[in-house]
Specification:
Blueprint lengths: L18 E4 L1 H4 L16 H8 L4 H15 L11 E4 L5
Antiparallel strand pairs: 1-2
Length: 90
Amino acid sequence: MDESDYQQTEVILNPGDVAVIHSDGVTDARNIREELYDSRENRRLLKRVAESPGGAEAVGRSILQDIREFSAGHSQADDITLICFGPTAG
């Protein structure tokens, strides 16, 4: 988009680090009380990532399971795109 301002940052990931990229469908998932999964007041996504042991696949599965449990009983209103990656030891 022409009016958007983009920045570039270089980050070095070490074995065990996990990068998480997601669409707004992750943070905007709602529960039956219409609360957002992640908001400024409640950083559920950051907490889930910090509490998830294992590599990228385990972190991704943990996030998706947390969203399913949080939004149980509420229909999904947006797509959920989640990419988790990082280097492995070896």
